[in-house]
From TrEMBL:
UniProt similarity note: Belongs to the multicopper oxidase family.
TM spans (from-to): none
Pfam hit, one: Cu-oxidase
Segments forming domain Plastocyanin-like: 45-176, 206-321, 374-508
InterPro entries: Cu-oxidase-like_N (IPR011707), Cu-oxidase_2nd (IPR001117), Cu-oxidase_C (IPR011706), Cu-oxidase_fam (IPR045087), Cupredoxin (IPR008972)
Native organism taxonomy: Bacteria, Bacillati, Bacillota, Bacilli, Bacillales
Protein name, UniProt field: Multicopper oxidase
Domain of life of the source: Bacteria
Amino acid sequence: MILSKFVDELPIPPVLKPYRKHPYHTYYKVHMTEFKQSLHSELNDTTVWGYEGRYPGPTIEVESGEKVFVKWINNLPAKHLLPVDYTVHGAHLDVPEVRTVVHVHGASVEPESDGYPEAWFTKGFKKVGPYYTKKVYRYDNCMRSCTLWYHDHTLGITRLNIYAGLAGFYLVRDQQERLLNLPCGSYEIPLMIQDKSFNKDGSLYYPRQPEKPVPELKTSIVPEFIGDTILVNGKVWPYLKVEPRKYRFRLLNASNTRFYRLKLDSGQLLYQIGTDGGLMEYPIGVKEIMLAPAERADVIIDFTNLEGKNIIMTNDAPASFPTGDPADKNTGTVMQFRVTLPLSNIDTSVIPSYMGPLPKIKEKSASKIRYLTLNDNMDKYGREFMLLDNKQWDAPITENPKLGSTEIWYLINLTTDTHPIHVHLIDFQILDRRAFDVERFKKERVIHYTGPSIPPEPQERGLKDTVRANPNQVTRIIMKFGPYTGLYVWHCHILEHEDHEMMRPFVVIR
């Protein structure tokens, strides 16, 4: 079933209004429900899950330093929309089939409000996970202005809950950003990019079995999910009418597995101004932007002097990445910009030449170096599954950084996939990547480098919370742990990997 492209307009998620706002804090209530929504005008309405009755959820906008309280409320049905594999950690038959817990991705937040995967809760908080502590989460938002997102993080079913629609933007604003005179208001638009597949009746398709089925299981987790249609903000191949002027787009890859390498078919530059953790020091003009699952890029596109033109945002990243199938004419298309609106006023917004200092964390300030492997394994059903440091989720905690200390992590990728590694609580900086001899490492446990140190790409030279750890490379990241102590997680953000053991707890100690 091939759907027509560019027949539906891009939806822009509304900004959520707080339930109560006091001078000292803001309070939101956010409900998770099941509903029908039109994802393409040639499809029957699709049953999805979402926050506040929409997918993607409404955008939450907060001020840097604002104390925000959110009561996340699960009003979902007892039966899951998608096929659940009960052999996956945390999803066995001894827990309710539908459970949720919300993580604000990229937020620096106390551990009780981080959305720990075992802090889940069911409808009406009737049943809760072993690490559940409270109904109302607290976000102190001690970050600079940045593009974050909130999404489900339940142990064993994250891939299904996010695919069903549980994701939305969370934007932090500050005064420094306002003074830069970036495009704003209706000229600033978040773009959540995902891939999905549909059944003939318009319902979401998610595979029950991997390509090589597991005969003893009715439903088995798949090693990855690759959809055949691309959605932006919950619409398949939408178009956006724009004025001939500058626009700011906050790009987010919210796909389960798919990577995107985004370009404009007009050949024009994208001006990147920010990474996961906020604004960069200087903007960069790039022809393409690479986004692994969960990565964000803050960009300005200038449509000046392009009246009447249609510009297509394309994708040419293979799936799976980096050695999978090339994008085809469907998955190679993301959305269309139509420069058809008249200029409503003179565009005085700017692409700043400098956005503010971003001090590099010095390598010699690190008090600890950790060598952590990314491993390929087989489970008892003969399925491939990935591990961090060759340890399963339930193994004793081995990463216990001290509050206020700086560490360098060597991510040693022994698999054939690129893994987007996400560390909760903190932002890090990428030091470098370097090719090494994988076979020799497996035999001798020694890193033997086979090439020079490769600095981070220009588009990664900012604060990051998710990094692409490529095969045959050691990726080094540096970070300072704080301002909170307690229990957090780090994991691969390919959701099928995360759900199938590629996630580990860590604890920040005093």
